[in-house]
Amino acid sequence: MNRRRRQSAASAHERLQPWQLTAQVAAIVVAVGLVYLPAFRADFVWDDEQLVTGNPLLRTFSGLLEIWSGGRTADYFPVTSTVFWIEYHLFGSKAVGYHAANILLQTADALLVWLVLQRLKVPGAWLAGLIFGIHPVHAESVAWISELKNLLSMFFALLSIFCFFEIEEKRLLGRATPYVASLVFFLLALLSKTQVVFLPVALLLCAWWRSGNATNASL
Question: Is 63 helix (H, G, I), strand (E, B) or coil?
Fold first, then answer.
């Protein structure tokens, strides 16, 4: 019964017209943008000085190499620090650019949540993606520049899950590309924030859910 309901919801999603899908994407993009619009008025605060404005490693190419060697960093999040390095060379000490990048990442994460839940055949996947994008629990991660690691690790983790679904759905068991892509995105997520180490367990749960046996008895 659960499986039939999920398949029915997925079929309804597939029947949507292109303009409807475009409208749904636009709604998430606009909603996230409007909710976090006040962040553009915010400046650097708290850890932002240590991680960005006062971080000497962001100023030179040798600093970038040192970021990856892990010699002078309190936490080893080299992908996050590399993004800070790029942002520093693009935006310098103008906080608005960093806030824009965080908002774009939150928007991408919300869209990926929608796609992942849709692949899981969860009813209301689009609404869940929208709620994820604008929920107040994410305010600190989006508005605080230093919390880029949360947005970035989520982005790569969701991409890893998406590639995993490609392997399952298209029966690409004999092809290395989707496996490699999923592993690479997982590694990038880990190097953004190590808390995503639980992702393999999440993938097993996704496979269990998609098997159609997602009942209390099957636990």
Answer: helix
Gyration radius of the chain over CA positions = 19
Q: Is residue 216 part of a domain?
A: no
The domain in which residue 122 lies consists of 2-210
- Counting other chains too, the contacts that 183-191 makes at CB distance below 8 Å and 24 or more residues apart are 185/156, 185/157, 185/159, 185/160, 186/156, 186/157, 186/160, 188/79, 188/156, 189/152, 189/153, 189/154, 189/155, 189/156, 189/157, 189/160, 190/153, 191/76, 191/77, 191/78, 191/79, 191/80
The pLDDT value recorded for residue 203 is 84
- Burial class from Cβ neighbours inside 10 Å (0-12, 13-18, 19+) for residue 38 reads exposed
Q: Are 39 and 96 in contact (CB under 8 A)?
A: no
Calpha distance 91→196 (Å, rounded): 28
Are the CB atoms for 128 and 122 separated by under 8 Å?
yes
Tens-place pLDDT, residues 185-206: 999 999 999 999 999 898 888 7
Whole-angstrom distance, CA of residue 97 vs CA of residue 52: 12
Residue 190 buriedness (CB in 10 A; 0-12 / 13-18 / 19+): buried
C-beta separation of 83 from 97 below 8 A: no
In the chain, the number of structural domains is 1
pTM, rounded to two decimals: 0.85
DSSP 146: G
List C-alpha distances in Å: 39 to 26, 31, 32, 47, 217: 20, 14, 11, 16, 46
Length of the chain: 219
